[in-house]
C-alpha cells in the first residue's frame, strides 16, 4: 500500500481489504485459539453474518480495489491466482495457491512466471473460468476509468507502462500469454521473486469479457468465490452477499464459507459499532467489523469485563509509525541533529499517546517485528524506553548547537493516534528535555498528506506512517528508500530522498530471489544498513483490537491482515 491514507483505508476494509485493516496487519495475535472462539460447539454452516463498518465498501470492482492479500470482504467474491494463508499468526503471512495449482513457476531469473488453473473452476452462472478471463481482468485494470488498484503491474509487465486498457486498446498486453484455457504466463521487465504475493491482489480476479459492464460492473461483478453479490446499494454502503451455488470447496482450501448470507452495512460511528458489538443484541450477536478498532477508553471498559474481553480479537498488521526527516532542509542536513532526535525520543510517552501498550508497541526498526518481513532486531541509537536526553544534548553540541535548537514538527490534525496532535505533543515534550524547542504545525489531513508527499513542499521534520502491500520487506523498504522511486513532480514517498547506489543494488538483488525466507533475511540486513543513516526515527507499531458478537465462531487472525478473517467465520 503505497499511500498511507490508502493503507489505512484498506486496513480498515481488509484489515489489509482492510485494512484499518485494512488493512491492515505483523506479530501473532494473542487470541489464537480460533476454533473455540465465540462458543463451545464446532463451527457449522448456516445463518447470517452481519458486518458493521464505518466506511462503505466502495469501488467493488476487482480492477479498482487496492487491498492486501485480496482484502476481507472482496475475497468472498473475488478469487485470485494466489491468496493469503487463512491461518492464525505467522502461518497466515504465507502466500498459497487459490485459482492456481501452485504459487507460480518462475524461469531461472524470475522474469517469467507461469501458472496453471485448477480444473473445474466455475463462475456463479456455472460457466468455466479460463486463463483468458484472468488476462482480461488484469487488462481492464489498466483502463483510466477503472483506476485505483495496485500500481505494480504497470511497472512490472513488459510493455505495460503506457497501456490504456482493453476499451481503448483491444490488442491487449503481449506480456500476458494464455496458450490454453488453464495456462497463463507473465513476462516481466526485471526479476521479481515476490510475484506470487502480487498475484493475491484483486486485479488477478477473472472477469468474463462478455459480462463486463465497465464502470457499472461493481454493481454486480461475476463471482468466482463462495459468495455472489445480491445487492450493492449507494456505492457499497450496504452490500448483501449470498452463496454462489457453483463454488466448490474442493477447489478452494482457504475459504470456509460457513454463513449462508453476509450483510455488510456501513456509515456507522465507531462508538456505535463498538456499543452494538458489545451489547450483542438480536442480529448483532452474529456481527463483526472489518474496519473499526477499540479506542483507549473503550478498551479500558472491555478489559474490566471478562465476557467482553473474551470477544476481543488481537492482531498486528505490517505497519510502522515514525518520524521522517527531509535532509535537504536545515538543520536536518546534519546527521548529528537527526541522531540527537533519535536519542531524545521517549517511546513510552509516544506509546501512551497512541493509546497505551495494548494498542501500540515501541519500534526501533523500520521493518515491522515479524519474521515474514525479515525483522532483524536492532537499536542503533539506544536510549531505553524513556529516551536519553544527555546523549542527545551531547550530539546537539557536536552539531554546533550547544545552546539548543528550535525546530518545527509537522503533523496532521486528524484524531488518528498516529500522526495526530497527541503523538506530536509527546515528541515535543521529549525533545524539550534534550535542548530542542519544538514548534508544532498541525495541518488538516488532506493538506498534510499533500505537503509531506511533494518534494517541493516536504517539511524538514514530520510524523509519517507506512504499511505493506504484502508481508515482505520489499514493498516496505523500496518505496521509502529506493532512489529510483523518488518522484519530483507527483506523490513521492521516499521522504529522505535517499539515492544510494548500494541500497538500490541490494534491492534489485533481493528482488531476484524466489526463496522468500532468504529474501526476508536480506531485507532485515538492509533495514539495519539504512537505519544507520538516521533518515527516520521508528516510533511504534500499532496493535489492532476489535470486538465481535457473542455468537461469532472460528475467529482467525493472521499476521497478513491483523484482523478477523470473515472467510473463516461461522455463526450460531
UniProtKB/TrEMBL annotation:
Q: Which GO terms describe its molecular function?
A: peptide transmembrane transporter activity
Instruction: Tell me the protein's name.
Output: ABC transporter substrate-binding protein
Q: Which segment of the chain is annotated as a signal peptide? A: 1-21
Pfam family membership, one = SBP_bac_5
Question: Keywords of this protein's UniProt record, alphabetized?
Answer: Signal
Gene Ontology cellular-component terms for this entry are: ATP-binding cassette (ABC) transporter complex; periplasmic space
Taking every annotated instance into account, which residue ranges of this chain make up the domain Solute-binding protein family? Answer: 94-484
Origin, by domain of life?
Bacteria
Q: Name one GO biological process term.
A: peptide transport
Q: Gene3D superfamilies annotated for this entry?
A: Dipeptide-binding Protein, Domain 3, Periplasmic binding protein-like II
Please name the source species: Streptomyces actuosus
User: Which residue windows are transmembrane per the record?
Assistant: none
Query: Where is composition skewed (Basic and acidic residues) in this entry?
Result: 209-221
